[in-house]
Write a structure and sequence with these properties.
Elements (H helix, E strand, L loop, with lengths): L3 E8 L3 E9 L4 E10 L3 E3 L2 E3 L2 H19 L3 E7 L5 E5 L19 H6 L4 H8 L8 H11 L1 H5 L1 E6 H10 L4 E2 H4 L5 E2 L4 E2 L1 H6 L10 E2 L4 E4 L2 H7 L5 E3 L5 H7 L11 E6 L3 E7 L6 H6 L2 E4 L5 E7 L3 H12 L6 H10 L20 H11 L8 H27 L5 E5 L6 H11 L3 E3 L4 H13 L6 H11 L3 E3 L4 H14 L3
Parallel strand pairs: 1-6, 6-14, 9-12, 15-19, 19-20
Antiparallel strand pairs: 1-2, 2-3, 4-5, 7-8, 10-11, 13-14, 15-16, 16-18, 17-18, 20-21
Helix pairs in contact: 10-17, 12-15, 13-15, 15-16, 15-19
Length: about 500
């Protein structure tokens, strides 16, 4: 068959891009059309997302794709990070620049929220990991600090849903991203209206939730005209980037118990694909999360700080006048001594520090460890600590599922870090298969292709991913050393 073209808008916390995907029925070839920077902007002492500029960049990418692929383009789909949101007024005005999840306004609000709805009740309904960045606490913060603005809200949309509104005018929220909000009931599979009402949040603003693969409409006439493209379909993939990445896990296994995944990037999202949310008392104790997946599945997972640690160490080094690219930092870490310093990646001090290297030094000092002295030592500390965190989370996932994981799949940009991949295999004691690097974009476009009738089941999608991707395998080694390091880190931390 002739290749069909699908467009993926893929937005991350550091960058965004528009990618064209050519699909011939068996393989997908990705061609990046436009890449642009992203990141929170400081506005009046708050952290916000500059969505107007992101929309401008998306339109630029759309025009570039139209110029190259023209009428072969069939549809477009958007995926982004989770938890952040936009409010629209009755007259469809954007009610302020949306906040970034790293903004400090939610500090301490979980404890306040639990005085109105107990922690156990929130988990029994939503099944979501408790993190101050969650949409629920962002909305509570807005209701406290700017109730008049909240009163004007007619429509609540997550970030990708807002971009879909810009593309085609739809006002719905896609399932996978809705479940990241801690406002969604995992049992009824609709908004947790009773809980939201108890928190005095306006429930009428929450729109219909739709499944991945839903056709949302056609491109707005003015958007199509400016881009020089026909009015193509706008399709909701798994709009949460991790949801799309898990679609592209190239497993040949059926069921979830034998394989696990890590979507590796700024955050590491580590989990299992399960048929239903796991809402047990033990799941609450372990503070795991249940996020929606494709075909009504759930992603039983844990959010881990991820390569944010290395990204922010790099920024610390640059402020001190030492400029390294990521490959150089990895090489320096390879040469550094093993297990000199260890941290808990999810310690709150690492979420939004003024200086990551200083925050790591502080942790090491407080726990009686040697403070890293070189850039390589700082990065090795981050990578070894991440691998040990993966090991701990893997144990929790195996406990909750009741079965041992035989292979770990790592997808996303973090697969490029071969040192972390090997550390992960060593720490977890199981083979690690990496790839695809472009998991999120592949998952995005293949859900679009399925919506357009060109592909069948989720298993079929993963067959295409295997045919389209380069994968590498890492075998575990140095078991005794990693066992000892795990024991040491357990003694240093309580999380």
């Amino acid at each position: 068959m002739a290749s069909q073209c699908y467009l993926a808008v893929d937005l991350g916390a550091e960058s965004g891009r528009v990618v064209a995907a050519l699909f011939d029925g068996e393989r997908v070839e990705l061609r990046e059309q436009h890449r642009f920077r992203n990141g929170p902007v400081s506005v009046g002492g708050t952290l916000r997302w500059d969505l107007v500029n992101l929309w401008r960049e998306i339109q630029t990418g759309l025009a570039k794709a139209a110029a190259e692929f023209g009428d072969s383009i069939r549809s477009i789909g958007v995926d982004t990070w989770g938890v952040d949101y936009v409010l629209l007024s009755e007259t469809e005005e954007l009610l302020g620049l949306p906040y970034c999840y790293r903004d400090s306004r939610t500090e301490g609000l979980m404890a306040h929220t639990f005085t109105q709805v107990p922690r156990a009740d929130i988990f029994s309904q939503t099944g979501l990991q408790f993190m101050e960045i969650n949409t629920l606490y962002q909305l509570v913060a807005m209701n406290q600090k700017n109730p008049r603005l909240m009163e004007q809200a007619a429509t609540f949309l997550m970030i990708p849903d807002f971009l879909n509104w810009l593309l085609c005018g739809s006002k719905v929220v896609e399932f996978t991203n809705a479940t990241t909000s801690q406002c969604f009931n995992a049992t009824t599979r609709d908004w947790a209206f009773d809980m939201l009402a108890k928190l005095s949040l306006p429930t009428q603003m929450f729109p219909q939730v739709v499944d991945s693969g839903t056709k949302l409409g056609t491109l707005r006439e003015d958007v199509a005209r400016q881009a020089g493209i026909k009015r193509i379909d706008v399709i909701a993939p798994a709009t949460h980037d991790t949801g799309s990445a898990v679609v592209a896990v190239p497993t040949e296994m059926t069921g979830s118990a034998k394989w696990a995944y890590i979507s590796s990037g700024t955050w590491s999202l580590m989990g299992l694909e399960v048929p239903n949310a796991i809402l047990t008392q033990r799941a609450l104790e372990l503070n795991v999360t249940n996020e929606g997946g494709v075909d009504g599945t759930y992603r039983l997972l844990k959010n881990i700080m991820g390569l944010w640690l290395v990204q922010q160490c790099k920024a610390s080094f640059e402020r001190a006048g030492r400029n390294h690219d990521y490959s150089t930092l990895t090489a320096l870490a390879t040469e550094a001594p093993a297990f000199r310093s260890l941290i808990d990646p999810d310690d709150s001090r690492f979420l939004a520090p003024d200086d990551m290297a200083s925050a790591i030094a502080s942790f090491c000092t407080e726990t009686g460890q040697s403070v890293p002295e070189t850039d390589g030592q700082f990065v090795r500390c981050c990578l070894e600590s991440l691998a040990l965190k993966y090991r701990r989370v893997l144990g929790w996932l195996e406990e909750l599922s009741g079965e041992a994981v035989e292979v770990m799949h790592i997808v996303g940009g973090g697969t490029k870090n071969a040192l972390l991949n090997q550390f992960t295999a060593n720490a977890c004691g199981c083979p690690v298969v990496t790839g695809p690097v472009e998991g999120t974009a592949l998952g995005n476009v293949l859900i679009q292709a399925r919506a357009m009738g060109e592909i069948g089941s989720l298993a079929d999608i993963r067959t295409v991913v295997r045919a389209s991707s380069e994968m590498n395998r890492f075998e575990p080694a140095d078991k005794d050393q990693w066992d000892a390091a795990d024991t040491r880190l357990s003694e240093l931390t309580t999380s």
